[in-house]
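Morning run. Coffee first, then this:
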Amino acid sequence: MPGVIHALRKFNRARARQGGGVYVRVEPDVRVYCDQWRRPKDHKQDGPSSSPQKMAEAPAPSSVSSTPVLTPKKRLATEVLHKLRTNKKELMADKGGVVITSDPTATNGKVQFTVNQLKEDFIVRFNILNQGTNSIHFTYYAALHRIRRFPLVAERRVTRACPLSLCPGESYEVVVQYRLNSYGHFPATMYFEFCPDPPGSKTLCIVREMEAIARTPLAMDLEPVAPYKPYQVATYEPVSTVMVEGVPPESSAVQHLKMTLKLGDYRYPAYLKDLAKRRLEDSRYHSPTVRQKLTSVSSLRLPPGGLLNCLLKMRNYAQRLHLLLHLEEIQMEVDIRKCDLHSQTMTRDRGNKKLLNLRVPGVAENRPSVLRGDRLRVSKSEDTVQPITVYTGSVHRVELDSVKLGFSKKLVQNFISNMKFSVEFTLNRFPMKMQHRAKHQLEEVLFPSGPGKTSISLPTLRLVSGGVPSGHFTHVFVDESGQASEPECIVAVAGLLHPQKGQLVLAGDPQQLGPIHRSPLALQYGLGLSLLERLMRDNALYKKNEESGNYDNRFVTKLLQNYRSRPAILKIPNELFYENELQVFADTQERQAYCYWERLPRRSFQVIFNGLMGKDEREANSPSFFNVSEIEVLVEYLNKLWQTQGKKGIPKLCPKDIGIITPYRKQVEKIRKALKSISKLNQWNDLQELKVG
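And here it is:
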């Protein structure tokens, strides 16, 4: 008899009960727990489900002869993690009488802890308790993660084919072991699955999140100074206002041109905003007037192919680019509203008492984009009685995280420290209006009948508006034209270049960073395509000859000699984007100086790819990201360079020989703070010459 009981316990068919005795499962039917995402074929009224909620509601088939189809773990992870993004509260909740607790204790369903030493085990215990009045079957559990760092330990191996029965009041423990070999953030999701009695009951799933954090003392110094406060979308109600204009900055132009060419306003029609909200698709929410306009805008309703989908030609050029620019402006208005500030204080500028300083987190990353001469609107937060006085401030200077503003004398004289304001950013429509006007003057230049050669700048805008006659310049050069959108590029051409005699030279790389725009609709229909790339794609003059495989050097010059990169760095882009034509011309001695550095994984390959599990964070009200784990790795490499320089044939380094590239202003700030705090690195003379940005 003891042998039988041992066998039953081994296969989860029996277990010891609290207070003595043995509980034996005696159900006459054998329950097979199949893939919970797959609906039985005879349930035709329900389609296949792709969510954990549907999975939890699907009754398991009771047929003994059916073959169980177990869900692959990767698919399970994908489905559960997707559901967590859409219905986290439901998955985290205890249900069906099952209560899951943990040691360490979870907060809002998440177990978070810090590991002080690498390569040491850390234990997380999950206790599963049946507080219901009926038995429940524990059918499956798994740690859903991408990296094998979380082995699971349990008394018995619980599977859908061999579940574990929990009587009322009984509990079971699952242990998760963490062993970390590197610093960083290591999240995982624990998935638990249950099926209550009687047979055919709905399957239940409960999820718990975990995160192990391993960090150095440096990370403590770089952690967020305050919790991040994301922008809260405000509801703007129409109010009566009184506008008080500010003081614009003095013009920096050496010669002042009188504006002789009137610039139109080019406002987008009101109906287009309604269409853009519905992505240019028909909707029952559209008014009859807007629906009628849809037929003249939507690419699906105009033959052949519609305005936005048809081939770009002279007859539709201006109309199409007008529409794309309107769509872009509509999105820009939405985006800039997200940067508005509330209950914000200003300070009086020390150098010029007539200016006020406003802190604008993210301005260095163009979030929002603010330039000299732009205007902001502010009102006192305490003002609630209409009409509300709104002061317009002109931007005199833009700094890393602040702007200097010129307001009216009324506000400057009455300004008091700690006075709070509501700040509204506005779009500078002048460049947009210039792009609209340029469309009407370019057909003969951009669609030539014979051979011809084909970034927006403030001097160019002044020249065009100042009445400089067409043909005044014999050549127009546009540098970095691959990064300029077509409307931006043609501003430099419209009204200045003679269609037959003038020479337009576009210099740039269509394989590198292209134009940056906000509107997904404008990008979808071609605004993200530069003039340089479009001409090389669509115009035979700028394509390679099929027989010779070369460009016509009268129209295209391709630079092939690379003086910047090692062969290992150049190899991949050369093969993927430049038809393997680029040639390494970097100085041999300089590019081979660290080929034998002992820290290289492969001495024949002078590039290190260092993967890590970091966490992108933000702090206070700054929209800029930083990643402390990346900074820890960076400092580690700098220390290695410092320790090995001038040894074993490795030349000495100066701080100016090192460049650190990151796109985020907050990451730059944190890196510079870290460099100052590391004593070894401060032994380098002129550490401030180490370039970060």
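The radius of gyration is 33 Å. Good start to the day.
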